[in-house]
Amino acid sequence: MSKLNATLEAVTARVIERSKPGRAAYLDLIARQRDAGVNRPTLSCGNLAHGFAASGEDKAAIRGGKAMNIGIISAYNDMLSAHQPYGRYPEQMKIFAREVGATAQVAGATPAMCDGVTQGQDSMELSLFSRDVIAMATAIGLSHGMFESIAMLGICDKIVPGLLIGALRFGHLPTILIPAGPMPSGLANKEKQRVRQLYAEGKVGRAELLDAEAASYHGAGTCTFYGTANSNQMMMEVMGLHIPGAAFINPGTKLRTELTRAAVHRLAEIGWEGEDYRPLGLCVDEKAIVNACVGLLATGGSTNHALHIPAIARAAGIMIDWEDLDQLSSVVPLIARVYPNGSGDVNHFHAAGGMGYVIRELLDAGLLHRDIMTVAADDLTAYGQEPVLQDEQLSWREAPAVTADESMLRPPSNPFSPDGGMRLVTGNLGRATFKTSAVDPARWTIEAPVRVFHDQNDALAAFKAGELDRDVIVVIRFQGPAANGMPELHKLTPPLGVLQDKGFKVALVTDGRMSGASGKVPAAIHLSPEAARGGAIAKLQDGDVVRLCANDGALNVLVDEAEWAGRMAVPMPSGHVGTGRELFALMRATADEAEKGGSAMLAAAGL
Fold first, then answer.
1. What pairing do the DSSP bridges indicate for beta strands 430-435 and 422-427?
2. What is the H or E stretch that residue 105 is in?
3. How many domains does the chain have?
4. How far apart are CA 416 and CA 409, in angstroms?
5. Is 156 annotated as a binding residue?
6. DSSP one-letter string for 488-500
7. What's the confidence (pLDDT) of residue 188?
8. Same-domain pairing of 205 and 285
9. Which residues pair with 69 in a beta bridge?
10. Is 223 annotated as a binding residue?
């Protein structure tokens, strides 16, 4: 067994020490919830009768209180391709539960908005806050006290973090996340990217662009690029919260069904009445959170998790920050290149060896904590295997000893990059995240005049007018949680790529988010403090020279110190009316900074 990497060990020790007060309070909470919280034995007859009134053939078992009752929290809708397969899951899961003497009920449903549909639209301002809404909806579903374990049906961007945050406040309950898998591969990613860029240049029309997009996103299942949704699935594996190898099996297959069956059966085995009790709050500890960071870095995952990991951690009483992520990045090699960081998608990644290969290799290199409580086994070793069907029965075999495609997946001894490619940049403009894993190292340092915008659409208009055809750092401000809910600025990726391809030195600086599929253009994102909370980005003016450097971790405006100190911040523009945005004013008013997760709910709760 490999010795644990020294930096990984040191970061984990620092997180544990920093988290001691919050973690102790959290563990006390879940202990009290198990022993004296709301649960079926404490319900009055009227409460209980309401809870099983419509349970059909499961009524006697639920009434008797002898069988484990699994609460299903579902984020199903049939507009979101990743979640469309979940429509039939509850009825299947009830059958699977009966096979092992348990029962299952749908405890509640949560919203599941699709960032792919809302990108660039006003409604994208609701996206990050939907995570808080999902967490609260999860808590409402579980508050009935009818359940001894939780099955969570969710995959996409804010949905898995929201489900986890909500369920962690019921951390005494065993919990397994059950994915539905990615859609089969469609149009080649390079071709999709080519058409998008041609459209940005005005060389093809909307019909050609729509044809390309429809050929890419073409059926049921998760979008196949390695954005936030698929990064979620990776994290659930390295945290041990899936049945091993469940992340990237396509929907509608026998193997997919058997993995769901295995999850339901396992939930019936790990309850508090048995000898193998595995509550969520003990599975998600400091080591599991560090594992999530390592997985993110090793696979070039979504920058959105620089927000989600701290928020998930806080719900379990754990404090982790961007400095921890930066230090881990310095020692975790990049061993996967999945589109947009590479040419192949998650199906190709899975075929090359997938999560079983990644986890085994990182464990052998001393870069993951093996000794965590997982939902499936005594430690993470089992997640270094891959699921297969043998004689129609689910079993596991060792992950491939050698990657099947070294252009997509490599061992830590021969990585694509010696570091994980997610840097903390700091300076007189604040603290931000710079994802270097998809950026040519020659572009890691950009020094250029800025052009300042308050809206990505204004930046697009300037691009189309040719005003950005030069070395430029595009600044988009008033895009943080307190300003407008921190929408992703996905529309900027193609035009900035066009400028870069023309030979200009280009970068983006913003207090907003870029897509989980952000790519080749240097970007300092999630800048904190944000403009709406007095951040220095609100003082920038057109023509100011900014230096962004991932090599030395710097983000500075090169303006005379006296002039900078005396400069006034510009006021925040008004807006946020329409598309329901006015209903989220309370969240904007109370949201905390990006490095803490950008959550209004956690801030208000004092977590």
1. antiparallel
2. strand 103-109
3. 3
4. 9
5. yes
6. B-GGGHHHHHHHH
7. 81
8. no
9. 103
10. yes
CA angle 366, 371, 377 (to 5 degrees): 120
Structure pTM? 0.95
Beta strand ranges found along 337-493 (DSSP E): 385-390, 393-398, 422-427, 430-435, 445-453, 472-476
- Residue 36 phi/psi, 5-degree rounding, is -140, 15
Q: Which two tokens stand for residue 500?
A: 């870069």
How far, in Å, CA of 526 to CA of 491, rounded?
A: 17
And the tokens for 267? 């939930």
State the DSSP string of 365-387: TT-S------SSSSSGGGGGEEE
The band of 190, judged by pLDDT with boundaries at 50, 70 and 90, is confident
Q: Judge whether 160 and 178 are in contact, CB under 8 Å.
A: no
In this prediction, residue 213 has a pLDDT band, given cuts at 50, 70 and 90, of: confident
CA end-to-end span of the chain? 37
Element (H, E) at 36: helix 6-36
Closest CA to 418 of 520, 295, 335: 335
For residues 452 and 547, the answer to whether their CB atoms sit within 8 Å is no
Residue 231 in this model has a pLDDT that exceeds 80: yes
The pLDDT tens digits of the residues spanning 122-146 come to 888 999 999 999 999 999 999 999 9
Parent domain of 431: 422-573
Question: Do 223 and 213 share a structural domain?
Answer: no
Q: Which of 197, 160, 194, 198 is nearest to 179 (CA)?
A: 160
Over range 453-458, report the average pLDDT: 94
pLDDT over 80 (residue 272): yes
Residues 298 and 314 grouped into a single domain: yes
- Given a contact cutoff of 8 angstroms between Cβ atoms, the answer to whether 247 and 237 are in contact is yes
For residue 44, give Cα distances in angstroms to 55, 102, 146, 273.
18, 22, 12, 21
DSSP line for 182-230: BPPP-S-HHHHHHHHHHHHTTSS-HHHHHHHHHHHS-SSSB-SSSSHHH
Interatomic CA distance for residues 415 and 411, integer angstroms: 6
Q: What is the DSSP letter of 548?
A: E
Residue 487 DSSP label: -
Percentage of the residues of the chain whose pLDDT score is greater than 90: 83
3-state SS, one letter per residue, for 475-486: EECCCCHHHHCC
Q: What CATH number does residue 501 fall under?
A: 3.50.30.80
C-alpha distances (whole Å) from 589 to each of 176, 204, 314, 537, 586 are: 34, 42, 20, 19, 5
Residue 380, classified by CB atoms within 10 Å of its CB into exposed (0-12), middle (13-18) or buried (19+), is: buried
Same domain, 99 and 126: yes
- Report d(CA 603, CA 294) in Å as an integer: 26
Q: 95-116: per-residue pLDDT in tens?
A: 999 999 999 999 999 999 988 8
Confidence category of residue 218, pLDDT binned at 50, 70, 90: confident
At residue 518 the predicted structure's pLDDT band, cuts being 50, 70 and 90, is low
Q: Are residues 266 and 334 in the same domain?
A: yes
